[in-house]
What does this fold into?
Amino acid sequence: MLEKSIDIAFLKCRKCGNLCQEPFQTKCCIVLYCQKCSEEVEKERKEKICPECKVFIDQLFEPSRLGKKILEWEQIPCPEGCGEIIRKFNLNLHLGSCKSKIKMKEYSCKMKDCNFKSQKPEFIAHIQEKHLDMVFELVCSSQISERKKYFKSSQKIEINENNLDVHCDYFDAIAFIANSRSEENVPSFNFSSGNINLFVCFLFDTPYAMTKTKLTSSGGRNEFEIQASNDLEQWNVIGTMVEESTCNVLELDNIEKYSYWRYLLKKCLTPNTLYFGIHWYE
It folds into this structure.
């Protein structure tokens, strides 16, 4: 249906009487025909005479931009059956997020010895319940493999439980230390409250000029400032870590040695992200 203010007769084909879907118009007097009918009229007429005003003209029909624009505002029901009434010009945008279309698509689990098939909501629940640990393992191991050459020339700085100053919503020191020395995906800390300026700080006995740092997680979209200090009062911003994957690496443009290094939360878009380890490289 169209808005009541639009004259529906104007949008009907003069030949077949139906609403024009691909509107063409007579070039001289702007009367609408659908494309198919305009082609038929041209074939029927031996001379270039307008079927409406009877004048001679070189080109009888041309695409009607005005008619097409008006028809794009026509309201139609969603073809996928979700029940929404949408404008034609919004059809493709709507189909990209249509609940009925997404729901009807069936997904097959690719995990070994699993034959589960379902639509999207049930499929996501299945992965979370049955295979979440394996997904983390596959993703993280792939990221770690890609980064091995990257860190070959750098020396990883080891830490211990006594070298930590933590101000976050949850922290498992034992799991964190174990994960920092291996690559096990053990949940160790998070920022579930979403409050900014929370941090994890490393207190080194010897000052280091860090050149790289790596953050492994369950895959968030949070932002951290990498800060350094020698007195715990004056903090210098060395870089900004913006999460883009489960394994995020940042090269630090730094030549100064500092005893204290920390990750300070500046933007928290995914507060329930689990962090498995922070690595420092000299």
Notes: Residues 1-5, 142-153 have pLDDT under 50 and may be disordered. The first strand starts at residue 23 and ends at 26.
